[in-house]
Amino acid sequence: MDMKQAMLERHMVRKYTDKAIPEDIVTKLNDRVRRNNEQFGLSIKLMTNDNTAVPGIIKLFLAKGVNNFFIMAGPEGADELCGYCGADLMLYAQTLGLNTWWVGGTYNRKGAQEKSGNAKPVGIIAVGYGQTQGTQHKSKKASDVSSYDGKEPEWFKEGVNAALLAPTALDKQAFTITGTENKVSITCDNGIFTGVDTGLVKYHFELGAGKENFEWK
Q1: How far apart are the C-alpha atoms of 4 and 22, rounded to whole Å?
Q2: Residue 37, Cα to own-chain centre: how many angstroms?
Q3: What pTM, to 2 d.p., does this model score?
């Protein structure tokens, strides 16, 4: 499975089995984390066999078996980069046969902060073997979130369709993508989740459109 196929197959999964992630896959995930941290100056960490990701009340009513997770952290103001790299990690995990869930609000913030040291956590990503493969989230239409000055090129359409597959806080998809020739811009307004959502959507758009076909403005 490549990253584009993973984008189509990845859905939010909140409940996981007790199956441990094999050591060779943990190594691959940590290598991916390291590359993201080095490239973008972040402090992402993968925690395995650790059940402290979400509070007890969430485990009781919403989540099950969350024993492995990425802490998405970096310097102050790195929310967008954390979202961007989070998208990369989720899709990469999907190519390895794993499932994921981006948790932006209902996670153990104090514990994540303690594990992150001086970095600022903006969320976690649960990762593991899901009890199910999840279901597609309700989505807006491409015309609801995008516009192009003139006839839309195929790469722009593909990028917008990919962006609509990105997870966003509360599934609001509160973003707008506009294009002129090969220049593309994105605006997003989802309160405290704006930065993370922007990064998640940008990564998906790039994957769908092909980074060689456009420039961000």
Answers
A1: 24
A2: 15
A3: 0.96
